[in-house]
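Attaching the record inline, Q. Sequence:
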Amino acid sequence: MRISIIHRRTAVVTHLKDVLSGLGHEVTVLPPDSEDAPGAEVVFVGVPSPAVEGIAKKDPPTWVVGCIPGNTSGRYQAAFAAGADDVMLDDACAQEIAGRADAPLRFARWARAAQGSGLDLGSVQTWTDLGPLVAGELTQMVGVPLAAHAIEVMPDISVGARMKLSLPKENVDLVIGLGMGRASAAALAQLVFGGPVDDTALADAMREFANASGGVIKRCMLTEGIQLAIGLPSDCTAQDMPPDCQLWRLHGSGLDITVWGGALSTATQRLTAGALREGMVIARSIRSANGTILLAEGYVLTERSVKRVIDHVGAHTLVEVARAA
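Structure, as predicted:
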């Protein structure tokens, strides 16, 4: 994030710059009599200052954090009255500074959640054709034709897998799931393995189906101008199905596969880098100490990239992630 500092106290400027730069922000220190902060997304301003009112009136607006030297109600009121969006003490600790800098991002997420994603999945041809597209992909994998029909009720499944697909720009997470009952699992074992196999082999096959399904949806959505980030396939049951899913039955040559697709919650959470796991999705770009982007928003973590993050920022640094893929 691009952050500017306008303050008359050198010690405060140095502290703010050290903390914010260490968090990976792009920090610019401006002269204390500046009345504008071109290009900044957040400005820390020593109050009183003519910059507060001028920056607050800009269009588009810039988030202004007023910095005051003492804890008195009069100074808080004066800062807010001048146009500051947030107020903190000059000697705030590093954790508080980090939270103030991130405040506009939190507000933006709340606003997106309140307004909706703006993406109408019903108008996305790839999503409405989920069943037939997956049927075509699996037909190529197993070598027998599979027909797709929409259904209303989720049947019992004994083995299943799912795939998460994230649309960072639209603030939407989707999930595709596949499952089958015992009879169909036996038919799949005969078709793919030539005879009965254990549950582990069947689960592996379902994860491969889920992976291929995610791949075809990603490719087709790209033709509609929608960029997807896909995670790793994982085992699932019918209970893992989100509400308001579309349901499809794929069948042919003894196979009877249920496919479902729906939207997941887009809530994010903060974890220490040491708690990151393969398959999680980066909700906010991770930067190194010099501001270089290590992993961009929407990146799906791998075992290797998790190690890279820990090596660069340390195991105890907080990272914002979406739900695990």
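The chain has nine helices and 16 strands. The first strand starts at residue 2 and ends at 6.

More tomorrow.
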